[in-house]
Amino acid sequence: MPELPEVETIRRTLEPLLADRTIAGAELYLAKALRGCTPEAWPCLVTGRKIARLERRGKHLIMVLAKPGNHEEAPLALVFHLRMTGQLIHGPGGRPRERHTTAVLTLDDGTELHFIDTRKFGVMNLIPYGRWDEVSSMSRLGPEPFSPSFTLTYFQNTLRRRKGKIKAVLLDQSVVAGLGNIYTDEALYRARIHPERMASSLDFEEVRRLYQAIKEVLQEGIAYRGTSVRDYADGLGQPGSFQERLAVYGRAKQACPSCGQPLARTVVAGRGTYFCPVCQRLEKEG
DNA sequence: AATTGTACCTGTCAGC
DNA sequence: TGCTGACAGGTACAAT
Hints:
Blueprint: H1 4-18, E1 23-28, E2 34-35, H2 41-46, E3 50-57, E4 60-66, E5 76-81, E6 86-91, E7 101-107, E8 112-117, E9 123-128, H3 152-160, H4 166-171, H5 181-190, H6 204-223, E10 264-268, E11 271-275
Parallel strand pairs: 2-9
Antiparallel strand pairs: 1-7, 3-4, 4-5, 5-9, 6-8, 7-8, 10-11
This protein binds a DNA duplex through α5.
């Protein structure tokens, strides 16, 4: 489900509701979703802690947990990865739990944060703040797409020495953090690059277009509060609207917004892949 | 070392 | 209706 724009939207909607709140209670309903401590220890470790702020790294949402009254002690971080269908929804206390609820945090104002995940792939990891290497999906994370370290030169050098197809390379979180299946297809479309092109075969102009397209499509995704194709909702349970602006994802056989020819679907890197066979050619010119 | 396939889960939808 | 198979926003791990 959530790629960078969705996780960022969740972060922004939850931050004002959770920041400076103290965790009053914690219940775990799916033990396998918890990493970093035992299911028995988890409620004790998080209860009584204050949520200092929410951060994001790639597709990870990081809840920073300070211990009130003890500023010497290093904070903990509860790191969520929602994978395909995870949701984090804040609301009033005492509301009934949905069927696939992984965990519930109760706050000192009586409200609750529900971690709901139909497919049960989502995980949360309790670690000392800063020890990101202890979260397997964070240990080899590439640069944030909006950080100064994600430069055109870095991107160019990285693509040049990679073997696989460009789509597979963009989905690799060690290249750049936060792209998933939807925004990868949209960025490739905007840059007019076929998803099966070899990454190392892109010329400088193509790399430059792709670099720009990645930043633009992620920025727009955030501006439109994420893409709700099926399960995604923000921290208040509200859908995003970027699905209305998708050019290619999920639109096989529909008209290309640019040339009007039918869009195609294929499978690349094991993922459904949407593109325009006319605007995104595999061969050099035609 | 890096790339590909498969597993992890549940739900939905198209086709028969 | 109900069955079957394909597919779904992601990652980990085994096999190559």
